[in-house]
Amino acid sequence: MSVVTARRITVEGVVQGVGFRPFVYALAARYGLAGWVRNTASAVEIEVEGPAGAIEAFVGDLRDEQPPLAHVERLREADALPQGRDAFEIEHSLDGEGFQPVSPDVATCPACLREIMDPRDRRSGYAFTNCTDCGPRFTIIRGVPYDRPNTTMAGFAMCPRCRAEYDDPRDRRFHAQPNACPDCGPRLTLLDGRGGPRPGDPLREAGRLLASGRIVAIKGIGGFHLACDATSESAVRRLRGRKGREAKPLALMVAHLADADRLCVVSTEERRLLASAARPIVLLRARPGAGIAPSVAPGLGRLGVMLPYSPLHHLLFETAGATLPALVMTSGNRSEEPIATDEADALHRLSGIGDAFLLHDRPIYVRCDDSVTRVAAGGEVPIRRSRGYAPLPVRLPFESRPVLAVGAELKSAVCVTRGPYAFLSPHIGDLENVETYVSYRSMVERMTALFRVEPTAVAHDLHPDYLSTRYALALDPAVPRVVVQHHHAHVAACMAEHRLTGPVIGVAFDGSGYGPDGAVWGGEILVADYAGFERVGHLGYVPMPGGDRAAREPFRMALAHLLRAGASWEPDLPPLRASADAEREMVRWQLDRQVNAPLTSSVGRLFDAVASLAGVRHRARFEAQAAMELEALAEGLVGAPYPIELTGVAPLVIEPGPIIRGVADDVAEGTSAAWIAARFHATVAEAVARVCERVRASTGLDRVVLAGGVFQNAVLLDATRRRLGPCGFEVFSHHLVPPNDGGIALGQAAVAHARLERA
Ligand code: ZN
Ligand code: ZN
Ligand code: FE
Question: Strand runs (DSSP E) across 678-728, as ranges?
Fold first, then answer.
């Protein structure tokens, strides 16, 4: 007879709402242990009693197995006193002062998919089917602990059959908070473009409308989509016209992986991302002539593709049959506004865009766009981190004080920290828009409430005019502010993601960020730790004629760079041919008089200048368009770098002149834009390597962090890694949060913590 012992186990991480308690229950049954499991506000607590050997085996399996959606961060054990229990029970949740990570929304699992496609199943054709392994989470949670009354499912009383599933620890739907069926759960309705009811089965009718070239606004998991047939050029053009989206690429949804293969070249890693539970939009290399309307992603050679992630999507493709090869599924908003989430709002804001509205009555509590990701240099590079990813925590290399970091201006996302975790909000959008600013403010409130963070500091960008800065400054004056330089934050974000401490060589290349000298920075090499940085190198300054306008009109940057490089404005050069006399006179005047021509070290603007010189793009219709087109041209080509010239000592200056003269010479010799693009990418990689070598020689540092929006560019990231790796550098780039400003709040938070520690 073995001795009965007892053990208390506390499990932290994403462990609620992911089937963790039934998993524990089943494990206890496996080893014949008595005891209980319960959710607290910050963890799952378990107490088991039984023979010591059985408890050892139980704990071993607890560490090794775990349900698919769980992310265990920490598992602690302590001895307990046996109570003489004879059964294992799932106890009620305890609320308290703790906090805990919340699962992101998760794509429909295979078991649920089988049910909705099975004509004999009671959930056959039911668009709100889910279980503990799948379904909405973050977007429906109003508070913690994660229980049904704290979700937007609170208004749906479960029918007896759903209730029985919910109460049965052996059932796949045990404590699945959004559990529902056609008898008791949310329902679909279809309205016409003016908000009147449309007869017929909503899904079938919506599918029919889509197949006939109409635009349907579809309420989804984290907001509305606007959908249309992606193979119909006229439908896609109509959608662009109504939405006011000129040229920015539109995302596609296809029914199966095989369809993605037909449209694009899909690598193993890309396939894994497409089919992952997060179901992001993955940027894939398009196969020409696959039938996708040219207006979907003009000039880019890549398509953003995702697979169905809710039962509604699966059923839409199923009911429409083979008539729908691919759907445009773009965020349900007018250009630059946040995605719509509630019916009244959608009907109002999307009227005149949607020919019909496919709605449901499950409220969306938190707005969450589709995530966008890509594969570069063999790994994932998030471009927009939102549904399916947020709010999974980033594990920090330190126990952080509670901090709120408010992000930058474009692609904003906010970050709160607590203990070892940083919680980055989903993508919110560009703050210059009033509607976005409203959802930004409510996101701050939701993130602090959900994770029960009372900030001891607020971190914000150095730029005085960012709305995020003004927002931070308007908060409670008793909470200290920490001002973080933009590119320092970029580098710190990448360091935090890799749990690096100590100084690194940080390369932060982007479009723009406020420099302490008042210039527009964006081509920075820093020696940085979390607490501070030294600018050890940068791209040479050049004026931006017209300020922000120069970012929208690359020909202006080409003219400014030519002048700075001492190269004449030859009338044959593409930027001269593409601009009017009056425009050039204005640029010349701005440059000569230094009026509205701030100095910049931006690599983003250098990309613009080269794109214009090479004849690729002179006027951008969306942010970074010129750079994206240049990248598309360079893909697959390896060119020799243009001459690199480093001047100065501290900081080193990468002279743009020799690069610009090299490009202009190539243009004069009739070199193709693709070869110029390839040579230019190699040049930027070479310049990074030369500066890093010089910095290593003087500091001994050999860890290099590559951050900033320019490193979304897969060709550049790959070239830079290939150049640095063999020279003995250890290279780090973003895999968890975006290299662009969407990830910057993480870096701000890390810097704020370090400054508070030092103070
Ligand atoms: Zn499921
Ligand atoms: Zn039911
Ligand atoms: Fe930036």
Answer: 703-707
Tokens of 529: 């730790």
Provide the Cα torsion 439, 444, 449, 451; round to 10°: 120
pTM of the model: 0.93
**What is the DSSP secondary structure assignment for residue 87, as one 8-state letter?**
S
pLDDT in tens, 78-127: 999 998 898 999 887 765 555 667 889 999 999 999 999 999 999 999 99
Cα gap 26→69, rounded to integer Å: 17
Q: Which residue did the predictor score with more confidence, 736 or 43?
A: 736
CA 753 from chain centre, in angstroms, equals 23
| Alpha helix segments (H runs only) across 44-109 | 52-64
Q: What is the Cα–Cα distance from 384 to 331, expressed in whole angstroms?
A: 13
pLDDT, tens digit (0-9, with 9 covering 90-100), for 40-51: 877 899 999 999
Are the C-beta atoms of 261 and 323 separated by less than 8 Å? no
Ligand nearest to the CA of 129: 1
**Cis amide leading into 651 (omega within 30):** yes
Burial class (CB in 10 A: 0-12, 13-18, 19+), 374: buried
- Proximal ligand: closest to the CA of 156: 2
Contact 235, 329 (CB under 8 A): no
Q: Are 287 and 264 in contact (CB under 8 A)?
A: yes
Distance of CA 519 from the midpoint of ligand 1 (Å): 52
pLDDT at 330: 95
pLDDT in tens, 631-686: 999 999 999 999 999 999 989 999 999 999 999 999 999 999 999 999 999 999 99
pLDDT at 80: 92
Cis before 169 (ω within 30)? no
Distance 754 CA to ligand 3 centre (A): 21
Measured in Å, residue 602 CA sits from the centre of ligand 3 at 10
The Cβ-side half-sphere exposure at 523, using a 13 Å CA radius, reads: 25
- Say which amino acid occupies 24: V
CA neighbours within 13 Å on the CB side: how many for 463? 20
Instruction: Give percent of the chain with pLDDT exceeding 70.
Output: 98
Q: Which stretches within 122-159 are classed as H helix? A: none
How far does the centroid of ligand 1 lie from the alpha carbon of residue 119, in Å? 17
